């Protein structure tokens, strides 16, 4: 099959060989006179820079990923090989969405060497075999299932035996990712892929419209459709994408997507919070963080825009707004700070219990979801790593599988439980930050790619200059952390032409140094600054094209 143009839209890394450290200043006859630009005081080294060395990050992130994968691979439901709902939950019931996230993580475990390819393929097949015999409702599976019999388990008193379309979509996204990874002619892999194709050809997405221009979340065989329509933006985006790309007789029409997902409150032009553009949805400061983190663990927000949003900006600003609220607007008695933020769905102390938490009165009770800030690592790496390091080094937050679900400092409470829908996505989210593996596999899947195209997603485009760097509007600078595996700082920029005459200068106090990229592609590029060659300080970074200043970005190398 010929791949669509979007498959070739990847970030090109342009490296450099010059440093702005304590060495003698670099000068060149090619360096132009520096025009007036924001001056960042040289100051001292960032005191916390040693917390974010590549070695320490690699160890911490690998421990978190591997611990959460162990929750699924070692503490699974024994009959179905599916993911349990959580610790301290009945060992007979399995979670459909948690299993979808777990399936997505299997290729990560193989690539990282925690299990063999043969073991990963067998678990993929085992899950498919169970799903093939499990009870289905017009092709969809239940939110929870009895792992022994495959029968639907009640999610709530009103939903006794029902198909859950959104969680079915999450399960299919995980299975599609596995199908792309386990792509050999080995009998186990062939058999598993055949079952995934079978499921794809049996889920009746159109049935779940109930004859209307929208999708319904659930259908009960005794009670009919639950009074819950799926509208965006929320975590349910994969349901609409797969419904669009399904076989024709089972698919929805594009007007169902337009009217159902993009309803009347979908787009709020010009809306901002704390200065950050946030135009999608009813929530001015965003809902729980998982609503952007979970769907975009399969969909790469760095490469997609549509007529309504730049999805990198949408996901990034959601995290920045959540953090800004916690640091400045939340009640002071909650004791939030730079290492304690992240409002999402999680357990809470009694009587607060489990719920989705988000910025705003009545929605925030002082309970932090441990995976909330951690899940922002793809879009705000430094701010996420601040929280990760703190949690990783806090004994009361450590359990059998690593960092536990939630805590409430103001009430002196820390959870001891794990919930599959919270921890399993983190294996893949962190891997996307480190290698982009899941994003690449998902983009290779025809149903996922076709759904994105039919929904109007297209390759991102920018004006020439810096882009996709998370600027803290309170400081006016982007806080950058070294990538743990490549050991480079990464700054993204856009070039209108390939092989353009572009160079950069970094001002550090009165010292200015010039950096020339090795290669430049048309579109998104990444300027790489080697970790060991740069002081951990504040800089003013200037981009020049044909010796004319194009753009300026203030950066903090942490």
Can you tag this structure with a few keywords?
alpha+beta, 18% strand, 558 residues, 14 helices, 4-stranded mixed sheet, 6-stranded mixed sheet
Structural write-up:
This protein is of the alpha+beta class. The chain is built from 14 helices and 29 strands. The strands form 10 sheets. A 6-stranded mixed β-sheet has the order 22-23-29-28-25-26. Helix 1 packs across helix 11. The chain starts with 11 loop residues before the first strand and ends with a strand.
Summarize the structure.
The strands form 10 sheets. The protein has a 6-stranded mixed sheet. It has 14 helices and 29 strands. It is of the alpha+beta class and 558 residues long.
Helices and strands: which structural class? Answer: alpha+beta
Distance between the termini: 44 Å
* Strands ordered across the widest β-sheet: 22-23-29-28-25-26
Total beta strand runs: 29
The tally of helices reads 14
Instruction: Give the strand content.
Output: 15-25%
Low-confidence stretches: 1-43
**C-alpha Rg, in Å?**
24 Å
Helix content: 25-40%
Mean of all residue-level pLDDT scores = 92
Quick one: overall form?
globular
Topology summary:
Elements: E1 12-15, H1 54-74, E2 93-95, H2 96-112, H3 117-133, E3 144-146, E4 152-153, E5 162-164, H4 165-181, H5 187-200, E6 215-216, E7 218-220, E8 224-225, E9 229-230, H6 237-245, H7 254-261, E10 272-273, E11 276-277, H8 290-293, E12 304-305, H9 311-329, E13 345-346, E14 355-356, E15 368-369, H10 370-374, H11 381-392, E16 398-399, E17 402-403, E18 406-408, E19 413-414, H12 420-434, H13 437-444, H14 446-454, E20 458-459, E21 465-466, E22 471-472, E23 477-480, E24 488-495, E25 502-508, E26 511-515, E27 523-530, E28 538-545, E29 548-557
Parallel strand pairs: 1-27, 23-29
Antiparallel strand pairs: 2-3, 3-4, 5-7, 6-9, 7-8, 10-11, 12-20, 13-14, 15-18, 16-17, 18-19, 21-24, 22-23, 24-27, 25-26, 25-28, 28-29
Helix pairs in contact: 1-11, 1-12, 2-3, 2-4, 2-12, 3-5, 4-5, 4-6, 4-13, 6-14
